[in-house]
User: Fold this.
Amino acid sequence: MSLESEADVPGEATLPGTLPEALRAELIAFRRDLHMHPELGNQEFRTTAAIKERLERAGLTPRVLPGGTGVICDIGTTPGRPSAAPAGAAGPGVLALRADIDALPIPDVKSGCPYRSTVPDRAHACGHDVHTTVVLGTGLVLAALRERAPLPRPVRLIFQPAEEVLPGGAEDVIGAGALDGVHRILAVHCDPRVDAGRIGLREGPITSACDRLEIALDGPGGHTARPHLTTDLVTAAARVAVDAPALLARRVDSRGGLSLTWGRIESGHAANVIPQHAELSGTVRCLDLDAWRQAPDLVVAAIDEIANLHRAKSEITYVRGVPPVVNEVTSVELLQTAMVARRGTDSVESTEQSLGGEDFSWYLERVPGAMARLGVRPPGERAVRDLHQGDFDVDEHAITVGVELFTAAALIDTGV
Assistant:
């Protein structure tokens, strides 16, 4: 593979110009193939095999993660040299580029789409197929560039499984050594509110913490004619649903942005019978890292107080999810420099903090890094689209933009 043009930038690095049409077409086809064959977290065997096979054809040596899904692949500075410096070794640290490879358990409802999901109730409705293709394409470009001139530092491609499964697959990938020798890590996430050809950047928190909450309430039931002789579990569950979020709002600094939202409440089977069991499920989201660390104790205490007031026995399962993704300043500056060098100052916009969760945050607990929002909205489109919807799709020009962004970042990054 050769690049169609090069443009000099300050220092020794050169940035590749427009990607060859053959490579662009291949990457779009690769993404569409993934889109047609979505796999859930820790089940991404076909996806893993496709990534591994393409990297091997490029002369690289990918390794499959211990769980059988997910791939790590190192690209050294020069051909035939070790790709990555082990932790504590002398020499430049590794720049890691991370993609998530799993899909969602929802149906694809894009009628007439030639690359619609072929798997019932499975869809790449969050753009992970795009993330995967961007990191793969970057690896292919960097491998070709390395044949012509040394790269400024080693690069590690991380294709992570199970991002959509709390607390996310990142911890397993980190446990497999993905961050050994890494000095910085970068990622992108599709954003249907940003036009293709642009990215959104933000210093500090760009996503929120997200935990899961399961509550069981129990007590002696009875006839609705005599609620005073029972534990009125329907009322108790209703008061937990309504009062717990309000109570928390007065116990947490409002700047922490703690939000308890319910997604399920179930109890009872008959109109005149007070049930003996009720269940609630929901999520706890926090904008602030400190608030997230306090959240379990505060949430449990609030629910217990309300349940006790209504003489209900409560069993609370608080499932830790992910902390906020907190973008490091230097890494954001690197992404901005890379994007401006490739596409000009108008290609970068500021973005707000999202209430969505992302397990990329676990990497940033250990090494500096940043996530950019990759625009996937067709320019000029006014339809309101969102992630995690069965009709989600992207302007595939975003793939080229993502490859250019990561490639430029890898060539500009000096490890400072």
Observations:
- The CA atoms of residues 264 and 281 lie 5 Å apart.
- The domain at 209-322 is CATH 3.30.70.360 (Alpha-Beta Plaits).
